[in-house]
């Protein structure tokens, strides 16, 4: 898709010695209406593979390529945080072979892209019940989070073995432990204390401004239940491997329309 | 000439008088190649001013064209949304009249529990709310949850129940997670206090129980609470309603405005537009769409 470089203030020749990052926006997008945090439910990989008579592995690999494209666009367009629902708590009930395939794809993806994350100043955070993951993958995740924790340009939050209900329960659990150690008084738990303990607190912008779900399904499937209260919901018809720049732009434009209607 | 003598033979290159030099007979007689070079350089530097002006105007025109393109794109987008709105309106009208065959038979039995989220600004429009409930009742929907963030619908509960004959309050009919079969419609009135705030109250209930039990499970990794315990605690604090199958949002923004999130893991969500623009046809279409959905629940 072609797009132009547009300096929205009509200036740029003199006096703007700000960021070195190239913030090229497609025509039609306003810089001030770009969401800070976008969340994505990457649905449709298996259907994509089945529709092409391919093995489900091909669907997940195509999905991974789609994710890289969206990460690049986020970095380019000034979105600060992208959260992706990679593997839900319910997905553990899928066939064992498929689950093992997904775990190996996660491991390979993290290993292969470490260089890119470091070069592009991207911070990686992984949320979810990681204790259920293979130990090698847990270790890889911890190392990657540690290695990239000081990166500031962009944050990618990957939800693995995650559910919104799990997130709330683990937040309450943390508060219970704090209460046991006298850090929190029983009866003092309120919404802000719970918010501080949610796993998305690893981000400067924990609440998504925009949620995109692909494959034409109109539900949030237990993803970030607490955090999505005021999030603009965009349900895209295309399957995740087919979700590219044009569709992403459509979602951002829809968010922009909401900014005009709601001022939120 | 004076300038030449003063400057030791070299003219002041910025002086306009230098232009006269080519016409001076003395210069014609005594010009050295280097002096000629200086004159050429001076002439080229004076030619840069029109060039700079030209670049300036090119840049200006480019910016104007880019801005016009940007506005044109916005106009096209707005036109697309307008056209889509017109098409949806027409379709809704045809559905209301029963002219579209596929919407004539709905599998209403698939909807056990329907939630309606209304933007608080519209929540005081009780006549619209009652009309919507009448449509739902006519379609055979038995259990409805009405939500607005600020609790205005809760305050209008008595008016709505009075004007909508035959409806009963939800808590009187709900036992052990089973929606009892009632001839009348059951209505639940929900607000923000039943969402995040209720979870906080439920967390306090769980915490009290944990401390009273001696607080076993001292390690960070051990599971102290479970999701089902949280569900039970929510019932204890009076916010343990069932999970809606379908949630319809009436408001300008496509978000659920804080509807009790614990209850909407797998809820289908449809944005219906502002309450003041609600139509029977769009309601039918939303319900029809829901009845055709197949969920895997992650498996």
Name the shape of chain A in a single word: globular
DSSP summary: helix tally of chain B: 10
Which word captures the global form of chain B? extended
How does the helix and strand content of chain A classify structurally? alpha/beta
Radius of gyration of chain A: 19 Å
* SSE order of chain B: HHHEHHEHHEEEEHHEEH
Write the layout of secondary structure elements.
The complex is a heterodimer of chains A (264) and B (299).
Chain A: E1 37-41, H1 45-51, H2 56-77, E2 81-88, H3 96-119, E3 122-127, H4 135-148, E4 154-162, H5 164-180, H6 191-197, E5 210-213, E6 232-235, H7 245-262
Chain B: H1 2-6, H2 25-30, H3 33-96, E1 114-118, H4 120-123, H5 126-139, E2 143-147, H6 152-155, H7 157-163, E3 168-169, E4 174-175, E5 178-179, E6 186-190, H8 196-212, H9 227-236, E7 246-250, E8 268-273, H10 280-291
Parallel strand pairs in B: 1-2, 1-7, 2-6, 3-6, 7-8
Antiparallel strand pairs in B: 4-5
Describe this structure in words.
The complex is a heterodimer of chains A (264) and B (299). In chain A, 41% of the residues lie in helices and 14% in strands. Chain A has 264 residues and is α/β, with parallel strands linked by helices. Chain A starts with 36 loop residues before the first strand and ends with a helix. By secondary structure, chain B is α/β, with parallel strands linked by helices. In chain B, strands 3-6-2-1-7-8 form a 6-stranded parallel beta sheet. A two-stranded antiparallel sheet of chain B has the order 4-5. The longest helix of chain B has 64 residues, at 33-96. The relative contact order of chain B is 0.12. Chains A and B meet through helix 5, helix 6, strand 6 and helix 7 of A and helix 3, helix 8 and strand 8 of B.
């Amino acid at each position: 898709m072609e797009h132009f470089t547009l300096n929205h203030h009509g200036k740029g020749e003199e006096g703007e010695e700000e960021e070195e990052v190239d913030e090229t926006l497609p025509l039609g997008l306003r810089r001030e209406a770009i969401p800070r945090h976008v969340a994505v439910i990457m649905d449709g990989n298996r259907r994509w593979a089945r529709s092409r008579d391919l093995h489900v592995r091909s669907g997940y690999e195509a999905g991974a390529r789609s994710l890289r494209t969206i990460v690049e666009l986020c970095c380019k367009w000034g979105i600060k945080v992208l959260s992706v629902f990679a593997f839900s708590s319910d997905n553990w009930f899928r066939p064992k072979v498929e689950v093992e395939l997904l775990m190996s794809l996660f491991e390979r993806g993290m290993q292969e892209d470490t260089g890119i994350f470091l070069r592009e100043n991207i911070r990686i955070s992984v949320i979810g019940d990681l204790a259920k993951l293979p130990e090698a993958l847990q270790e890889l995740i911890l190392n990657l989070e540690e290695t990239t924790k000081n990166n500031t340009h962009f944050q990618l939050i990957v939800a693995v073995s995650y559910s919104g209900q799990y997130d709330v329960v683990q937040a309450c659990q943390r508060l219970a432990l704090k209460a046991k150690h006298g850090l929190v008084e029983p009866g003092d738990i309120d919404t802000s204390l719970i918010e501080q303990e949610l796993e998305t607190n690893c981000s400067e912008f924990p609440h998504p401004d925009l949620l995109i779900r692909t494959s034409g399904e109109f539900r949030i499937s237990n993803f970030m239940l607490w955090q999505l209260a005021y999030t603009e919901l965009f349900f895209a018809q295309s399957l995740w491997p087919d979700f590219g720049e044009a569709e992403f732009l459509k979602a951002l434009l829809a968010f922009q329309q909401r900014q005009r209607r709601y001022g939120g | 000439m004076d300038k030449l003598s003063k400057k030791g033979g070299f003219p002041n290159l910025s002086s306009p008088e230098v232009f006269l030099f080519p016409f001076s007979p003395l210069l014609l007689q005594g010009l050295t190649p280097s002096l000629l070079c200086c004159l050429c350089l001076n002439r080229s530097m004076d030619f840069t001013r029109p060039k700079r002006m030209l670049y300036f105007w090119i840049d200006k025109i480019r910016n104007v064209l880019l801005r016009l393109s940007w506005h044109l794109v916005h106009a096209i987008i707005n036109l697309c949304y307008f056209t889509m709105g017109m098409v949806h309106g027409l379709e809704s009208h045809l559905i209301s009249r029963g002219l579209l065959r596929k919407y004539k038979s709905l599998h209403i039995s698939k909807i056990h529990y329907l939630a309606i989220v209304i933007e608080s600004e519209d929540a005081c429009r009780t006549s619209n709310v009652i009309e919507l409930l009448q449509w739902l009742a006519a379609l055979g929907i038995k259990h409805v949850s009405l939500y607005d963030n600020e609790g205005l619908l809760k305050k209008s509960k008595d008016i709505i129940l009075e004007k909508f004959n035959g409806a009963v309050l939800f808590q009187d009919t709900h036992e052990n997670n089973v929606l009892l079969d009632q001839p009348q419609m059951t209505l639940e009135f929900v607000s923000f206090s039943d969402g995040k705030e209720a979870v906080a109250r439920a967390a306090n209930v769980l915490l009290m129980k944990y401390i009273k039990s001696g607080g076993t499970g001292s390690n960070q990794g051990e599971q102290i609470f479970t999701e089902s315990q949280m569900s039970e605690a929510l019932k204890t604090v009076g916010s343990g309603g069932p999970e809606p199958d379908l949630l319809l949002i009436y408001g300008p923004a496509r978000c659920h405005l804080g509807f009790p999130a614990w209850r909407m893991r797998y809820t289908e969500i449809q944005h219906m537009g502002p309450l003041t623009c609600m139509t029977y046809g769009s309601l039918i279409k939303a319900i029809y769409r829901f009845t055709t959905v197949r969920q895997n629940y992650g498996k």
